[in-house]
Amino acid sequence: MSYSSITLDVTDGLARVALNQPALGNPFNEAFCDDWLTLANDLTSRSGIRAILLTANGKYFSVGGDIGMFARNLDELPMLIKKWTAALHMGIARMARIDAPIVAAVHGSAMGGAVALIASCDLVYAARSAVFGAAYSSIGYSCDAGASFALASRMGVARARRFLLLAEILKAEQAQQLGLVDDLCDDDKLLAETEAAAVR
To answer: Which residues pair with 15 in a beta bridge?
Structure first.
């Protein structure tokens, strides 16, 4: 399979998936939405996948929705959003049914849809300097990417509602206290410790 916004390497049953648009902040744009569905189809068709390690390249884990792309396509935006999220949501649904744990390693900032994606993972490790933000209400946008279910499952309904409605920004320690993050790691040890958990 060929991907434009992520990388995939499968070795000894571990699928290493990295968001890979670092110059853009790894946004949830058209390329990513399409790639996430292709990835889900790819991984669910393989045998021998024991675990999936989700990481990101660059300064940010993900800035969430591509606001610049939204602004450039205002007239067509409602139809484009439906098109992009159709692929994204199908990919998320298929990944949720995969017979392997998904373990995330989060660094930098994770915003909007990225937080929903992280919340849907089975285990979440975060760098101590990481931050998590619910950006939806700041731009007048309804939450997507399974946010209402995934965040409520990890944080509880009332706390997830507040996080989303108030567009909160959580430091890693706060995110752990609320159940969004399972374990904190020193920044320079994040990937090694997360990968060790994924291959157990």
So the answer is: 10, 52
Collapsed DSSP state (helix, strand, coil) of residue 39: helix
Note down pLDDT in tens along the chain; length 200 residues: 789 999 999 999 999 999 999 999 999 888 999 999 999 999 999 889 999 999 999 999 999 866 666 556 556 656 666 676 788 889 989 999 898 999 999 999 999 889 999 999 999 999 999 999 986 555 555 656 667 788 999 999 999 999 888 889 999 999 999 999 999 999 999 999 999 988 87
| 3-state class (DSSP) for residue 3 | coil
End-to-end Cα distance, the chain: 27
Around Cβ 50, how many Cβ atoms within 10 Å?
Answer: 14
User: Are 5 and 25 within 8 A, CB to CB?
Assistant: no
8 φ, ψ to 5°?
A: -135, 130
Residue of 60, 58, 92, 51 whose CA lies nearest to 194: 51
Q: Is the pTM of this model over 0.70?
A: yes
